[in-house]
Amino acid sequence: MIQLFKDVNVDWLGKRRIFITISVALMLAGFISAIVRQAVPGGTDAFNLGVDFKGGTVITVKFKQRPSAETIREALNRAGIRDAVIQPVIDKQDEVLIKLPQMGSADDAPEQAQAQVDVGRARVAEALKTLGPEAGPEIVGTEAVGPVAGRALRNQAVAVTLLALAGILIYIAMRFEWTYGAAAVLAVFHDVLVTLGFFSIFQWEISLTVIAALLTLVGFSVNDTIVIFDRIRENLRLHRRESLYKITNDSINQTLSRTVITSGLVLLSVLALVLFGGEVLRGFSLALFIGIIVGTYSSIAVASPIMVWWQQRLETRKSAARDEAKARPAAAAARQTKNA
Fold first, then answer.
1. Which of 95, 116, 145 is the last residue before a domain boundary?
2. Confidence (pTM)
């Protein structure tokens, strides 16, 4: 096994107050951003939801020679069509999906909504004509995504994430102890909230691909946490007389090389997606990029300290209960002697 770091002896748990301050500051920044954006009259929403969640128009365009997504986006921008999502159809090399955000209100009548769809279709058709006859654009389909469907997708995304967290809690509780599982789930909550906070602050678009990235982040973060917890369990068997505090620090130091190598290689791959993946993968790659950094950090700085704190509290309660149980017979005997 490759070892980047040898004989590491860092007191990670001793720096837990610093880590907690950093985590709280990041989560508060995202929370304040969401609250302020939602509360300011005429401001933007807390999150920049895409067509999948907010509703809008999906236009399917067929080309004789399909231009690049950036070329199509430039043509739309010249026509004043902003915030459009261009998504090539994978199984049809000559087709592209152009997603336009909802231009009207969610309470618009069906006639008004249809008018918005027709206007969007006409504007896209005019913009694509500037690509020239060699591109040969032809609109072959238009579909309206209503706000009701968008809300349903949003609710399903939240439900899927919560179910994943519940499954993680059950699995880790069965493999280790429930305190380990609770610490891992709290760390994952931390990762998701911090990542969403960045999306709120910078108003990056949240689409179904971002939800896929968040679920990927959940699995990645938990896997990294389990590696540390597994080493803690091994060291608890080997060093029964040492404190949980010291064993946890030693376990983090022993797995540090593995953590850095695994996370570093994944981070380099995701960085390539951020830089060269284009607009279609922008949200997905940014969510993974931030999530991997935060997830690696939380395995060391969030999950482990929470687990140690919780276990120590339980041990303190068990010790107090044992002392109380031992004291009861002695107290009863003393009362009997006094009465006699």
1. 145
2. 0.77
